[in-house]
Design brief:
The complex is a heterotrimer of chains A (about 260), B (about 300) and C (about 325).
Chain A lengths: L2 E12 L2 E12 L3 E5 L6 H8 L7 E6 L2 E2 L5 H7 L1 E3 L12 H13 L2 H5 L4 H11 L15 H14 L4 E5 L7 H16 L4 E5 L3 H7 L2 E6 L2 E6 L1 H6 L1 H6 L18
Parallel strand pairs in A: 3-8, 3-9, 6-7, 7-8
Antiparallel strand pairs in A: 1-2, 1-4, 4-5, 9-10
Chain B lengths: L1 H31 L6 H21 L7 H23 L9 H23 L8 H5 L2 E4 L2 E4 L1 H22 L1 H11 L1 H6 L4 H23 L9 H16 L4 H21 L4 H15 L14
Antiparallel strand pairs in B: 1-2
Helix pairs in contact in B: 1-6, 1-9, 1-10, 1-11, 2-3, 2-4, 2-9, 2-10, 3-9, 6-7, 10-11, 10-12, 11-12
Chain C lengths: L10 H6 L2 H15 L5 H25 L8 H18 L4 H23 L4 H20 L10 E2 L4 E2 L2 E2 L2 H27 L2 H11 L1 H5 L5 H27 L1 E2 L6 H14 L5 H20 L4 H15 L1 H8 L6
Antiparallel strand pairs in C: 1-4, 2-3
Helix pairs in contact in C: 2-7, 3-7, 3-10, 3-11, 3-12, 4-5, 4-6, 4-10, 5-10, 8-10, 11-12
The chains are: A alpha/beta (about 260), B mainly alpha (about 300), C mainly alpha (about 325).
């Protein structure tokens, strides 16, 4: 399997605070990877470094053959790494359609987009269909229900035609019954594209159901890396991520959100 | 050497004047996050009121020395009237809107006050030279200065001192600082933010009017002085950092010294130099010299 | 959820489709009526349409989320460029003068825009104001350019064609109308293109635009230069119409008037700035005659009313919701 994304000896400190410590990880193309860890463990810092929002203190990030350490978010997006946000970043005064039109328009005019001549209106319709946004076509983004905002945010990221997609807590803020519907929809839409997906998640059920592999973060380090079954049973993970010692009656996969 | 001294003294005088006209502006911005374009109009109102009140005082045969008190009284009266009227009557309905919108609102107030002032005081130039002329002049080497400028410098220092003391040593000052830092938290802590706004705005207006009142004896008071003063006050405040009182002092000193130097050495750039400095500072430190550090947003 | 997609084109888009026919109709009507319009009305229209062109540029900036308090810089540069050609080189050709206006204003904007594109909100407003005041200060102290008095200019030809006295006024009027119409049409097309739509996206959420792979700074820079060019040509037209240029054109209160008209007009349609400017100039001329000391009072009160109660005019600036 080709390695599409790699972090080598990645470190990030903010003064006395270590947000990322010695991160070494290789992500295979087309895999679906979950990032778990309690707040402040370093998952979002990792994503922020990969997408260019933060510059690592030391170490490097590689995208295929290319060293992308320290590039601007814009450049990294143009190269094919797109992201969604914990708090959906939308054009609140534009309609759903207009949001996607801007997104698709930008992607079509990037280097990668211009190499493949695109039918923009068709792209927009496809995205609307895949993410089930048809019913909200002319609604202003700022007035949408939270779950739909999340979907639109992810659809915008997908509009960028990414090879690697990073989702930051895609189901946070979405009600429990909606979470699975949302993830089902997203994953189906993505399967059609052929995309490597990394997503940050707090919900252990979601993570175990949709990922091939889990990276568990704690205090800036990766403390476990492997298949969902083994990672979620790892004692360190159980203690530091799931917090099992705090509520011993809960085991992963028993229908409780952590 | 005397050239250097001349520039320095001119700079001190001009800086003092700039500080008084700018400090109210930065105070209001710091607490209320409103960049008050009408600040210049209130300066003008202060000048007109001082001329009227002082003129009346002198015309009715009172002691000329009392005219100084009339100047200050005029400023206080303008503040006590215009402050609450504008704040309660208009501003409190627009709090929470974007900063740029608030600027437009105060710009509208400026336009309104320009004409109200004309209606109230007429368009002919007025003057009240007595407080200025009364004190005569003094010499420093072969340079002659009006004694009135000592009054200006002295008052400016006094205002700076009082404000510094109030802000740092009194309870009211601490409350003010809390609101400057975080309005919502302050309100959550039980501070009557509404009252703080009213008081702050009134004090800011009084300071603007004081600037005008003190300047009145040295100029011809006429329509148009508001528009000129606003941009100067802006420059000073922006250089020092919006909302910083120490910044206003530093900005005043910088602009004062630069202008004094320009007047003596390169008169062609006198006007231009102030705004050039402002542009330069904004380029190098976009938030001003003393701006507070901001927390990350994502 | 209903997955059927409605026919393309939002309501807003359908309405703005009437813009082009309206603009063309106005162009034709004005050109045809030109020879019969009384002198004072023609003068008024010239100034109104020129100012409308300036405000059109402001509208573009506001759609991008920026309020400039310094368009007077380019307005004045455009005027002085036209005037300088006459004053120093004896040029009296309308087309050449206007070309100079656009080129000089545009060139300065290309340079200043590199800097200004990094600023937002109040700081953008303040810095733009500072630059216009720098020009004011420079002009006032430059005796070669007439200091506070400025200097006069006159025109005799249009693109090389000599104008007889009878057609001189009409030529200037026609030029103004055509330029305004072209500016309006061009802006309309631009705003409905991908780049034009990016402006609104930037106003709403710059972060998202960057994270989609587009450069916010480049778009802002481009829009800044466009708005400067429009202000420059507006200034050139006014200078020629009035026959005089002076530093007051760069004073911040002039920029303030442009801002006022922009607020009044709103940013919804390219026709708005021209209508707003015409109303403004019309009211101003009459107010000056009958009650010169309440003119600004009326302006100020109107502005407040529009800000508080007519968000239709202010929609683009005020309903800008910052991403949480």
């Amino acid at each position: 399997m080709a390695v599409v994304l790699e972090a080598r000896d990645l470190n990030k400190t903010f003064g006395a605070v270590t947000a990322a410590s010695n991160i070494n990880v290789k992500i295979d193309q087309d895999s679906v990877v979950g990032l778990i860890g309690s707040n402040g463990a370093g998952k979002t810092t990792f994503i922020n470094m990969v997408t260019g929002y933060l510059k690592p203190t030391s170490g490097s990030i590689h995208y295929g053959e290319r060293d992308i350490t320290g590039l601007t978010p814009r450049r990294i997006t143009q190269l094919g790494i797109c992201r969604s946000f914990q708090i959906p970043q939308l054009f609140n005064n534009l309609t759903v359609f207009e949001n996607l039109r801007v997104g698709v328009g930008i992607a079509a005019r990037s280097e990668r987009g211009q190499a493949v001549r695109q039918d923009e209106p068709r792209e927009i319709e496809t995205l609307i269909e895949r993410f089930n946004l048809g019913g909200y076509y002319s609604q202003t983004a700022g007035l949408l229900p939270e779950g739909v905002r999340k979907l639109l945010d992810i659809a915008m990221a997908v509009a960028g035609q990414p090879r690697v997609l990073l989702l930051d807590e895609p189901t946070s803020g979405v009600s429990a019954d909606e979470k699975f519907r949302l993830m089902d929809m997203v994953m189906t839409a993505l399967k059609a594209q052929g995309v490597t997906v990394l997503f940050v998640e707090h919900d252990m059920e979601i993570v175990s159901r949709y990922t091939h592999r889990i990276l568990a973060f704690y205090e800036g380090r990766i403390i476990a890396d492997g298949e969902p079954d083994s990672v979620l049973k790892d004692p360190e993970v159980r203690r530091y991520v799931i917090g099992e010692h705090l509520h011993p009656h809960t085991a992963p996969g028993q229908g409780n959100t952590a | 050497m005397s050239h250097f001294l001349a520039i320095f003294i001119d700079g001190v005088i001009y800086s003092s004047w700039l500080f008084i006209i700018a400090v109210g502006l930065t105070l209001i911005y710091g607490v209320m996050k409103i960049l008050n374009v009408a600040h210049g109009s209130l300066y003008a109102l202060g000048a007109y009121a001082a001329t009227a009140l002082g003129g009346y005082w002198l015309a009715t045969g009172h002691a000329p020395m009392g005219s100084y008190a009339m100047l200050v009284l005029a400023a206080i009266v303008v503040g006590l009237i215009a402050g609450p009227v504008i704040e309660r009557g208009l501003l409190r309905f627009v709090y929470g809107k974007e900063e740029v919108v608030l600027v437009l609102v105060t710009y509208a107030v400026f336009l309104i006050l320009e004409d109200l002032t004309k209606l109230a005081f007429g368009v002919d130039p007025l003057s009240i030279p007595e407080p200025y002329a009364l004190l005569g002049s003094f010499e420093v080497g072969d340079l002659v200065y009006p004694t009135y400028s000592v009054v200006l410098v002295g008052l400016s220092l006094l205002v700076a001192l009082v404000l510094a003391l109030v802000l740092n040593k009194t309870r009211q000052g601490k409350i003010l600082q809390a609101v400057i830092h975080d309005r919502e938290m302050s309100a959550a802590m039980g501070i009557n933010v509404s009252r703080v706004y009213l008081v702050t705005f009134t004090v800011g207006v009084m300071l603007a009017a004081l600037g005008g009142a003190l300047t009145a004896p040295t100029i011809s008071v006429q329509p148009g002085i508001a528009a000129e003063v606003i941009v100067l006050a802006f420059a000073v405040v922006v250089i020092g950092g919006l909302g910083s009182l120490g910044g206003a002092a530093l900005g005043a000193v910088i602009v004062g010294m630069v202008r004094a130097w320009a007047v003596h050495k390169l008169p062609e750039v006198e006007l231009f130099s102030v705004y050039a400095v402002m542009a330069l500072v904004l380029i190098v430190r976009p938030k001003g010299l003393f701006a507070a550090p901001e927390a990350r947003k994502i | 959820m209903n997955n059927k997609l409605p026919s393309s084109g939002t309501l807003r888009e359908q309405l703005s489709d009437r813009t082009v026919p309206l603009l063309l109709a106005a162009l034709v009507i004005l050109l045809a009526a030109g020879p019969f319009i009384p002198r004072w009305a023609m003068f008024l229209l010239n100034v109104s349409l020129s100012w409308g062109t300036v405000v059109l540029g402001m509208m573009l900036l506001m759609r991008t989320g920026l309020v400039s308090f310094g368009q007077g810089l380019y307005y004045c540069l455009g005027a002085y460029a036209a005037g300088a050609l006459h004053h120093f080189y004896g040029v009296s050709d309308i087309a050449l003068m206007l070309l100079a206006s656009v080129l000089i204003a545009g060139a300065v904007a290309v340079v200043l825009g590199l800097l200004l594109a990094k600023y937002r909100d109040i700081f953008f407003a303040m810095l733009s104001l500072a630059f216009s005041m720098i020009l004011f200060g420079l002009l006032v102290k430059t005796s070669a350019l007439g200091s506070t008095d400025g200097f006069g200019l006159s025109v005799k030809t249009l693109a090389g064609v000599a104008l007889s006295e009878r057609w001189e006024r009409y030529a200037l009027f026609a030029t103004t109308v055509v330029i305004a119409a072209c500016a309006g049409l061009g802006m309309h097309k631009y705003l409905n293109s991908h780049l034009g739509r990016l402006a609104g996206a930037i106003r709403d959420n710059e972060l998202r635009v960057e994270y989609m792979g587009a450069s916010v700074r480049r778009v802002i820079h481009l829009n800044y230069v466009i708005s400067a060019a429009l202000a420059g040509i507006g200034g050139g037209l006014v200078g020629i119409t009035i026959g005089h240029v002076d530093p007051e054109m760069a004073f911040w209160t002039t920029s303030g008037e442009f801002v006022f008209i922009a607020i009044l007009s709103g940013t919804g349609n390219v026709l708005a700035p021209f209508l707003g400017a015409t109303i403004f100039e019309g009211v101003r001329s009459f107010a000056y005659e009958y009650s010169p000391n309440t003119w600004q009072l009326v302006l100020g009160v109107t502005m407040l009313l529009v800000i508080m109660f007519l968000p239709g005019g202010l929609w683009s600036v005020f309903s800008r919701k910052k991403a949480a």
